[in-house]
Amino acid sequence: MIRAAALAVLVAAALDSTIAEPPARVHPVAVLGSIVDRIDRTLPDTRSVGVVIAVLVPAGFAAVVAAVPVVVAGWVDPLLGSVLAGVVLYTCLSRRLLIETAERVVSLADSDADLPAAREALRALAGRDADTLSAAHVRSAAVESAAENLADGLIAPLTAFTAAAAVMGVIAVVASVADVTTGALTTGSVLAVATGAAAWVKGVNTLDSMLGYRPRRAGWAPARLDDLVMWIPARLSALVLAVAAGRPTSLLAARRWARRPDSPNSGWPMATIASVLDVRLEKPGTYVLRPAADLPTAAAARRGIRLVNRAAWLGIVSAVGCCLALDVYVAGTGVVTAG
């Protein structure tokens, strides 16, 4: 039952590695973004409108894009359900594109002649005014954004997917112990709930990125919901960065600087990678992490991006391992489910 979730993660990782991103015209997140933009331009700017958007939009996105298609496929064939769940999860992840974009920014920043191009490329990573940034500040922004987007673009949806699959497994075990039928707990239903959870988190992130940082009252609820949803993934991202670097104690040093950014979450992966690389990361006029150190050199920035990539793969392997371990546990309890 939960083994199928591990297969879905592997399918998603394989698609991300080979294709990177689907075309924007068919990308569910891009379509969601266009819908949110239309909603934003149509509805009044009130907190109550923001609350309604925060409640309905991610839930609708999860149901339409993930849960319903996957459960239908699971009814037809469990393997088909796993593959479709992997395809949907793939659209919620972003590893290869993140790494390639960050690498391109750092490479362009090496040359003064290419610095304007580096500033322009940075816009795909970081929402800041890059027109006057020095090469060192461009590299800093690339490293910061790679670490922050590790949480938003990979660890958060993977965590939601794995946690939801685990909850379904626990429900199956509890139902079995209580001698309650578990016929409804099919492979398709497990995959639908897990994939729906990942899509819901992606919907929350998308709302926050589009509405949460505007000086508008309707952005308050999406921003607060994202703060809540990202609390655990941001700290897990810091952990996988520290483990991938072989320096788990860097988390202790990161605690000192993690609260410098306005966000209650983004500072954790950024401060951790700053501690591992022994560099200063700075958004001019907003925050400075480890001010006594120097801004990253090109070599340090490249090390940082390679570290983010290793941490991403560690997150993927951990998700697969957790699903397989849960499957062994559930199977060991003697639970039998349909499909």
Automatic annotation (TrEMBL):
GO molecular function: ABC-type vitamin B12 transporter activity; threonine-phosphate decarboxylase activity
Keyword vocabulary terms for this entry: Cell membrane, Cobalamin biosynthesis, Membrane, Transmembrane, Transmembrane helix
Lipid bilayer topology: Multi-pass membrane protein
GO BP: any one term: cobalamin biosynthetic process
HAMAP family (alphabetical): CobD_CbiB
Family, similarity comment: Belongs to the CobD/CbiB family.
Role description: Converts cobyric acid to cobinamide by the addition of aminopropanol on the F carboxylic group.
Protein name (record): Probable cobalamin biosynthesis protein CobD
